[in-house]
Amino acid sequence: MSEGRPACECIICRDYGDRGRLGNFQLRTIVHISQYGWSMVLVPPVGDGPGWAYTVGLWHSLRSPELAMFGGDVYEMEEILNALGRQAGREGPPADGERRDDVVRGRPAAFRGVDPGWHERAFHGAMAFYRGRPLPFLQVVWPDENGLYPWQPGTELPFRRSQPWLWLSPRQHPEGVWTHRLTAPA
Predict the structure, then answer these.
(1) How far apart are the C-alpha atoms of 127 and 41, rounded to whole Å?
(2) Which whole-number Å values give the CA distances from 80 to 39, 68, 103, 151, in the listed order?
(3) Is there a contact between 61 and 52 (Cβ–Cβ < 8 Å)?
(4) Distance between CA 135 and CA 63 in Å, rounded?
(5) Residue 43: which of 80, 69, 23 has the closest Cα?
(6) In angstroms, rounded to a whole number, what is the distance separating the alpha carbons of residues 73 and 75?
């Protein structure tokens, strides 16, 4: 561990004698992180719920918060998160409450810290990689075509539903904002 860098307890950094029992998802994740610095999990939309994408390995490689996006095309979100990961490596990671310009289709994005109550529900792959240890996660949230973020008055209900408010605890989450399933496949 480098001076001043928090410890990483992931399946790469700590061997608890279980590496021989890792599944295909975890093995693929290790290969991607070894090659690229992080991996991606894409969760396609089901029914009228949004799909989402999130990183696994930014914390391991850069000590950057893992990033997640909801409500867009999963492959477009993958491209955006990869660009943000490269940017974190060059310029430093985004911070909770920060806004950056020209992130999503020429629009800005806001970064909001994800409440830990959502980690296992929405980011099971990351939690398995980090052995269930707490880690920082930021949600990348973008505004509608009028420049309004989902929490601002005047946004359409379908737009608000496409981006859950994971900076709030599951108990505080507004009813009807995210009607999608709460558990992502591993």
Answers:
(1) 12
(2) 13, 10, 7, 21
(3) no
(4) 10
(5) 69
(6) 6
Q: Is 8 helix (H, G, I), strand (E, B) or coil?
A: coil
0.70 exceeded by pTM: yes
144, amino acid identity: D
Tokens standing for residue 92: 């430093």
> Which one-letter DSSP state was computed for residue 69?
E
Residue 122, pLDDT > 60, answer: yes
Tokens representing 138? Answer: 């930021």
- The answer to whether residues 112 and 138 touch, using CB atoms and an 8 Å cutoff, is yes
- What's at 55, amino acid-wise? T
- Which SS3 state, helix, strand or coil, does residue 55 take? strand
Helix (H/G/I), strand (E/B), else coil: 179 = coil
Looking at the DSSP bridge assignments, the partners of residue 40 are 55
Q: Of 130, 29, 38, which Cα lies nearest the Cα of 83?
A: 38
DSSP for 115-161?
A: PGGGHHHH-HHHHHHTTT----EEEEE---TTS--TTSTT--HHHHH
Between 18 and 52, name the one with better pLDDT: 52
